[in-house]
Amino acid sequence: MAETGAAAAVRPAPRGATPSRRMLRLAVSRADFRIGLAGFLLLVAIALLLPLVSPINPTKIAYQVKLLPPFPAEGWQWPHVLGTDQLGRDVFMRCLVGLRYSLLIGITTVLLMFVVGSALGLYAGFRGGWADAVIMRLTDAQLSIPMIILAITILGVSRPTVPAIILVLGLSGWPLYARVVRAVALGERTRGYVLGERVLGASDWRIMLLFVAPAILPPIAFVAVLDVARMMIYEAILGFLGLGVQPPTPTFGNVIADARKYLLNAWWIATMPGLFLLVTLTCLNLMGSALERARNAVLQGEA
Amino acid sequence: MFVLSFLLRRLAQGVLIILLVIFIIFTLLRVVPGDPARLIVGGMAPDAVVAEKAQELGLDRPIPVQFAAYLRDLVTGDFGRSFVRPKSGASFGGSAFDDQTRQERASVLDLILDTLPMTLQLAGVAIAMALAVALPLGTLGGLHPGRWPDKLALVIGSVFVSTPNFWLGIILTLFLSVKLKLLPAIGYRGFSYTLLPAIVLAVELVPFILRTLTVSVAQVMREDFIRLAPVRGLSRARTVLVHALGNSAVPLVNLLGVQLGMLLGGVVIVEFIFDYPGLGLLTINAVLQRDFPLIQGIAVFIAVMFVLINILVDLIAMSIDPRLEY
């Protein structure tokens, strides 16, 4: 943080730049953010484009190429770089399809919990009083029920479709956003611009939606990158428990759960998807923590 | 006096939270499809037997009546009896409906209290392991922001937080247990069976401790009382170990309170993978068997722990930093 702090001191922040602008600029100046972003974009591009042009079908069974080891182990075969599974399906292609579902669920879930959590938090913090007390006790109650219990209770009996998974994960994640947004909104109530609008006769709703929300939400939204990674892990956990998107559609969770049986003689079927997910999430987390550090620096007035 | 009013207010709030949790779980279980009576007597049983079972379990009554009865029992400390587990242990869910070997059903509270020590042992070992790694690294990172300890902490934190726990469990089992035969993995027959699950859980905890600690140590080090410590003749080591770390402990203790739910979620998965006979495994089985009283009991128990631990955390934070007010 010292080097970025020093760099920022040398290059004075331009007047009029909003905190979220400064935060983004500070994050982009960090090497870990750039590495994470580059790696992530590369992986996403491959996951989105390669299945479209590749002749390999991730769900097609081909016994003649079953259990091929990954490159560079002896006996590997082009184009199965990460090997094949017990039914001859390409492990790499299955990872890519898994990543598509993982991203879809991770990003949509975070959007959902961000919107619901921020709306409730904003209302609670800005209005105060009874609404505040009720919403905050609800977040406490929600936080004291571990997500995984809720998820298996609901998904264990209803068909685990993509919308159901998103809904259940989103349900468990909203309280953290509600709390953070409430805390910031609380402090915002007495700021000059809010009082000014009030004097001009603006309604609470108008001030909340048009002025407070745009002022406080962007920094929180950037750090939500970290939660996308967390939700992608949860999606994999649900898949592993058999409560995610169902086979034959490959997801990280159901592929690894299935590959457990073949661990001793074909270690790569379970190992490779996990590594693939780990690399993707590390990229996301590097971006997220760089953004978080940038936010802390901006809040402390270092930049 | 201040502490007393704080305790009273927090306990009142806690009761409200627990009531909300019971309400949410209770309603959810009964609204979501999946009839426990049908599960217990088995798919082949005639409808009359299912209805009889439902009546025996009290499931034929309207939901509000069931809720009131449950609350009334709960106040007297009665968590109810498991739908499917006999006193001896093994569950008999799904067995033939006319099986005569069924015994008396186990008390929910007994089931929870029997498995709790195992989970506490696992969590304790995991937290100790996580602190052993994260405390030195996080402190160094906070002392030298932007330098290599800080970067190392960032990389380790980013990689660990990106590691799916179930996958790590499988991989460690393969390498440490099957290939190298260093540690036992599945089930529980002695303390060594705690180590592998604890490692997986610790990996999950380390990033959170690292992140909180680097930020708070870096922040404390900028405070006047630390900068002035050399003037008072305090050594660098004493300044860091006693004054800086002492003050950084507040966010760390707070973290434990907030992340308790996450820790429990991790425990459930890790116990499931390693077949470790703790509260987490009990929970996952209860949910899969739709054992309503057991699920409700565990939810209430966790909510009570959550409330108590958060009160305790605030009390500890207050005693570390008397300026704090709640």
Please report the number of helical segments of chain B: 13
Proportion in helices of chain B: over 70%
The number of distinct β-strands of chain A equals: 0
**Largest sheet report of chain B:** 2 strands, antiparallel
- Mean pLDDT of chain A equals 85
Shape of chain B: globular
Q: Strand pairing plus helix content of chain B: what structural class? A: mainly alpha
User: Nearest-angstrom radius of gyration of chain B?
Assistant: 24 Å
Give the integer mean of the pLDDT values of chain B: 84
CATH architect. name of chain A:
Orthogonal Bundle
* Content of β-strand of chain B: under 5%
C-alpha-based Rg of chain A, rounded: 23 Å
The level of helicity of chain A is: over 70%
Count of DSSP H/I helices of chain A: 12
CATH third-level topology of chain A: MetI-like fold
Task: Please report the first level of CATH classification, the CATH class of chain A.
Answer: Mainly Alpha
Strand content of chain A: under 5%
Q: How far from one another are the termini of chain B?
A: 14 Å
List the helices and strands and how they pair.
The complex is a heterodimer of chains A (303) and B (326).
Chain A: H1 2-10, H2 19-28, H3 31-53, H4 91-127, H5 129-143, H6 147-155, H7 162-188, H8 192-199, H9 204-223, H10 225-240, H11 252-259, H12 268-299
Helix pairs in contact in A: 2-12, 3-4, 3-12, 4-5, 4-7, 4-9, 4-10, 4-12, 5-7, 6-7, 7-9, 8-9, 10-11, 10-12, 11-12
Chain B: H1 2-31, H2 36-41, H3 47-57, H4 63-75, E1 81-86, E2 105-107, H5 108-143, H6 148-161, H7 165-179, H8 192-221, H9 224-227, H10 236-258, H11 260-274, H12 279-288, H13 292-320
Antiparallel strand pairs in B: 1-2
Helix pairs in contact in B: 1-13, 5-6, 5-8, 5-13, 6-8, 7-8, 7-11, 8-10, 8-11, 10-13, 11-12, 12-13
Describe the structure in your own words.
The complex is a heterodimer of chains A (303) and B (326). Chain A is mostly helical. Chain A has helices spanning 2-10, 19-28, 31-53, 91-127, 129-143, 147-155, 162-188, 192-199, 204-223, 225-240, 252-259, 268-299. Chain A is elongated. Chain A starts with a helix and ends with a helix. Chain B is mostly helical and 326 residues long. Chain B folds into two domains: 1-84 and 291-326, no CATH class; 115-288, MetI-like fold. Chain B has helices at residues 2-31, 36-41, 47-57, 63-75, 108-143, 148-161, 165-179, 192-221, 224-227, 236-258, 260-274, 279-288, 292-320, and strands at residues 81-86, 105-107. A two-stranded antiparallel ribbon of chain B has the order 1-2. In chain B, helix 5 (108-143) packs parallel to helix 13 and helix 10 (236-258) runs antiparallel to helix 13. The longest helix of chain B has 36 residues, at 108-143. The mean pLDDT of chain B is 84. The chains are: A mainly alpha (303), B mainly alpha (326). Chains A and B meet through helix 1, helix 5, helix 6, helix 10 and helix 11 of A and helix 1, helix 6, helix 7, helix 8 and helix 11 of B.
